[in-house]
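[agent] plan:
  1. take the single chain provided in the ticket
  2. run structure prediction with default settings
  3. attach structure tokens to the ticket
  4. add a short note for the reviewer (M.T.)
[agent] executing step 1
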Amino acid sequence: MQNQPVVAKPSERMPASDFTAFLDWAKRNRKWGRRELKILLGCGINQIQLWRSQGAPAYIMIACHALAYGLGPMTATDCAAFDATLAASRKPTRGRGRPKGYRPSQKRPEARP
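[agent] step 2 finished; step 3 output follows
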């Protein structure tokens, strides 16, 4: 299975069981206790306990994925490299960002008086 990008909707939450599994994994494999995770996630120990019982918000879910894959802080160099990769993957456009060969499927409706 290939790694899929983590895309979370703002309303999506990390289930409590998944967050607990992440905490167990972090303690077992990375030797991170609650103090280290509190610093890495930018929250308090009580918040970790709350997420353990009620689930965590989407931004914490994404942060857990980043920590699990060993990603560090995003830098300006990372952003430039990402922009270059993204620009190379885009289709060529002309005019106002329309792809080459773009034809609107129907005419725009007339404005109402």
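[agent] step 4 note for reviewer: The first strand starts at residue 13 and ends at 14.
[agent] ticket updated
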